[in-house]
Amino acid sequence: MSTAPGPLPFKISVLLFLKDSQGRFLLIRRRKAPNMGCWSPPGGKLEQHLGESPFECAVREAKEETGADLAAADLHLFGMVSERGYEGAGHWLMFLFDCRKPIDSLPPEIDEGHFGHFSREEIESIAIPESDRTLIWPVYDKFKDSFVAYRAECSPDQPLRVFFEQTPENP
């Protein structure tokens, strides 16, 4: 077992993989940390003080950030990732949701940033967080129709290490 990088804040969040009818992903170019200046799937932090579930958070964040009216039935939870020591600033537990309902209209700009649609191939050539390139998109590609639980050791002074804790092959 690895040692934690120290007492850092722990946040619980959701990421939403929303697509239009053509299969292009809706991403937001973030104006704020984390991942400022990069394109990322929309999402946000759980309202823990309200006892909000990850599905409730995903539905709320979709509405707040994109205006999309979703229900839990529109979402498939395909992943759970724990990032220890992300950017040396905190620990994250993220729930990854694929949305089955197409979101065709480009949402208006919000405080968090502005939106764009990108094919999966285009995502490889735009500015995305390195952690998304390594930890998020390959997992989406492989497990979007099933479920995976994994963790990442993200200490800034060590190479990124990923440990798969549950996969469809090893439930």
Average pLDDT confidence is 91
Oligomer: single chain
Strand content: 25-35%
* pLDDT < 50 stretches: none
Tell me, what's the shape? globular
Question: So what's the CATH class?
Answer: Alpha Beta
Main sheet specs: 6 strands, mixed
DSSP strand count: 9
What pattern of helices and strands is seen along the backbone?
Answer: EEEEHEEEHHEE
Instruction: Report the radius of gyration as a whole number of Å.
Output: 15 Å
CATH architecture: Alpha-Beta Complex
What is the rounded distance between the termini? 21 Å
In DSSP terms (H or I, runs of 4 or more residues), the helix count works out at 3
The strands making up the biggest β-sheet line up spatially as 4-1-6-5-8-9
- Total number of domains: 1
Short description:
This protein is α+β, with helices and mostly antiparallel strands. It has helices at residues 54-66, 120-123, 130-143; strands at 10-17, 25-30, 39-40, 43-45, 75-86, 90-99, 113-118, 148-153, 161-166. The two termini are 21 Å apart.
Write up what this structure looks like.
The chain is α+β, with helices and mostly antiparallel strands and 171 residues long. It has one domain (10-166): Nucleoside Triphosphate Pyrophosphohydrolase (Alpha-Beta Complex). Helices cover 18% and strands 35% of the residues. It has 3 helices and 9 strands. The protein has helices spanning 54-66, 120-123, 130-143, and strands spanning 10-17, 25-30, 39-40, 43-45, 75-86, 90-99, 113-118, 148-153, 161-166. Strands 4-1-6-5-8-9 form a 6-stranded mixed beta sheet, sandwiched between helices. A 3-stranded antiparallel beta sheet has the order 3-2-7. Strand 8 and strand 9 (161-166) form a beta hairpin. The chain is globular. The chain starts with 9 loop residues before the first strand and ends in a 5-residue tail after the last strand. The model has no long low-confidence stretch (mean pLDDT 91).
